[in-house]
Every structure is written in structure tokens, then in C-alpha cells.
């Protein structure tokens, strides 16, 4: 198997299994490394560890013995979710052992180009956009990273005829050394994961690892509307392509005069763009610039910008029924995310919101509900949300227990031309195990109430 380095008999300790650790173990074992995996779950209950041991991979489960570091592994591969103040990680730092994440191992084994996408918001949508835009090009795109299968798994299917389109978190990027995507996309920077990184400066530094190793032959697509991003990329040696929704760019991707442009050429009219909200236009522009740099056909880029229906549970277009348009934004697990979705629409909205009560205020929604003429609240937070709707002057306000009933009420109070939007502003755990389950329940409830399958336009 292809590798940029020789892993034969190198002693590797993998800390934490889950998907990333397990796939890194498979990959490095395949490359000939002497792999030890360490996971907190006891071996008898640990199916992943049992599978790895059946391949001859050493497993240490149930605790994190310091002896694993005293054995002096040459590399520690850390699950991205494990903090750097973990006992074994600290011991590895003190011993001078390199600490990487599975993304670095995947890059080392990649026989093809890689596109890396990061930012505080919009990563999944932009990554999916790029993947769709590259379909039908000279190299088949493979989707990897946080969005689906881990990069270490995807790379085992890759050949020189592919290009890996990889969504990357700051946690993953922190554990990179030689990682160098041929095309890098930096979307935006906001206050995020400061509990993990310790400071905004450390968070920014982790994000900057995306393009740290790029050269003048690589491409960096960046947000010209974000001052922090502009400062970060200033000294990057790569070919820099800006994108903007606020100003005309002669060279780059922009929204100007009612059109989306790329390098001075019109792509699609703003009115033909398929997703609502200026932030989705920004994601589309970034994706168009990156996909074009990676060899996508211009007509395919245009087609995707017109037809892309969004990522599941992230302002996902569900259907149009009797001139009502349904959107699933179950991923909005807090007030700021719900605010962003409300800002995406100029037409009247029936908002469905509710979920786990964390004791937080919903006052942040009040200024953003000027175009909400119906609020259906449900779950633990139903009363609090109803109070916010009353303060905002929402004329139609109803409370119910379940999401299914909320969908029925939303349809009852809706009018032609309305958007019926699930944007809960709450975690799902009062009634659902995940936001994905909540989103699927919403879609099913819409299908039941309308008698139509999702995706239909009638």
C-alpha cells in the first residue's frame, strides 16, 4: 500500500478507539506498523478492540496504564475528542513523543490529492457542495472526515484517480504535522471550542494548520469578509482565492449585482440559488472556487448551485406542498443557530421550536421573529418559547407536547407562501436520542400530514 513514510515495524500507540482510532489502527497495521490500541472500555464489552485483536493488534482496555508511554512508542495517535490534558497525552508530551490524529496518518497514505475544509460554521454544507461539484470531473471525489467515514478508512479505497474531499475540525488539525491539502478552504472564525483549546488564539492556531504546509503550487480559498481569516492567511505562500458576499472581486468568487460570480464569470442568478440565506451563498461561493481549482466542470458547478437541496438536518429543504415550503433545521440545538436560520428567510415563517430545558434564556430569538407569524412550541421548553413569542408579538402561538403534533398545528395555521421551519433552538434529548432522530421524525410527520414523500414539489 502507498505511503509517504515507512511505517514498517514502527511502534504506534493509538489512544481511544471509536471510529477514528479504530480506522487508524486498521490503516497503520496494514502499513506494517507495530500497533497497540488503548481504550477506556473494558475488553469484554469492547467489540472494536476484539475485532482489532483478532487481526493480531495488541489491545489494552479498561484503563490507561502509564507503562504504555514508558514503552516509548514512536508515535501517539490520539482520538480528536481526547483533550491534551489527558494523563497519557501529557506523559507523551513530556517524553517528546509526536502526537497526531488519524488525519495525519490518512494524508501520509493518500495516493491522491486532498481538499481540506474547515471553519467555525458551514463546513459540512461546503464539503458536500464540493463533493457534488466534482462529480463527473476527471477525478472521482471521495467524501471523508467529520461528514461521513473517517479519512483513514476512505484513504484505503483511494487511488491516484480520486480526490479526497475532507471536512476537518480544529481538534483534528491540531494533531497534524506534515498534512498538506492541495486545496484548502477556510470559511470563517467564531468563538468555538474554547474549553478544549484554552483560548481563541490557540483555536485560531489550530485552524491555521490547514494551510501551514502549503506551497506556491497549492490553493487556499478564504473568506474575504472575515477580518480574522484575512489576517490568518496574509502570509500564506499558496495561491489565494477570496470569496465574498459583500464586495465585487475581480479574481475570486463573489455575489454582485444579483449574480454569483467566479473569476469574473457569471455562475447563477441569486434568485436561482437553491438554498436560503446569505451564509449559504458564502458556502456555495467557497465551494465553487475550491471545486474549480480541483478540476470541476463549470457547468456542473452551476448545476449544483441551482439544485443542491442542503445537508440533512441543516436547513434541509424537505418539500413544497400547497405553496408551503418545509425546512428541517434540527441541527439548530441552540439559540444562535436558530437565529441564523430565521435570518435566512424574508417570507413569512411558521417556527417549530422546543426540546431539552437547559435553563437558558430564549430572549435572543425575540428580535429575529419579526417575520414569524406562527410559533409552535413543544417539549420541555414549550412554555419558555411561548413567552419569547409573546414578547416578539408573534400573532399565532401554540403549545403542544410532541413534535408530530407541532407539525399538524403548524400546517393548520399556515398560509400559502409560508415557510414551515423546524429550528428547535434546543438540544433534542428530552424526547430524542440525537438531533438526527428529531429531524427524521419531523420529515416523517410532514410526509404523514401532507400525504407526500420528501423531495416532492406540488
TrEMBL record:
SUPFAM superfamilies given in the database record: MurCD N-terminal domain, MurD-like peptide ligases, catalytic domain, MurD-like peptide ligases, peptide-binding domain
Positions of the Mur ligase C-terminal domain: 313-426
GO molecular function: UDP-N-acetylmuramoylalanine-D-glutamate ligase activity
Enzymatic class: ligase
Subcellular location(s) per record: Cytoplasm
Keywords: ATP-binding, Cell cycle, Cell division, Cell shape, Cell wall biogenesis/degradation, Cytoplasm, Ligase, Nucleotide-binding, Peptidoglycan synthesis
Domain Mur ligase central: 117-291
Pathway(s) it belongs to: Cell wall biogenesis; peptidoglycan biosynthesis
Principal location: cytoplasm
InterPro entries xrefs: Mur-like_cat_sf, Mur_ligase_C, Mur_ligase_C_dom_sf, Mur_ligase_cen, MurD
Residue numbers binding ATP: 119-125
Catalytic activity, EC: 6.3.2.9
Catalytic activity: UDP-N-acetyl-alpha-D-muramoyl-L-alanine + D-glutamate + ATP = UDP-N-acetyl-alpha-D-muramoyl-L-alanyl-D-glutamate + ADP + phosphate + H(+)
Highest taxon of the lineage: Bacteria
Function: Cell wall formation. Catalyzes the addition of glutamate to the nucleotide precursor UDP-N-acetylmuramoyl-L-alanine (UMA).
Family designation: Belongs to the MurCDEF family.
Protein name (database record): UDP-N-acetylmuramoylalanine--D-glutamate ligase
Organism: Bacillus daqingensis
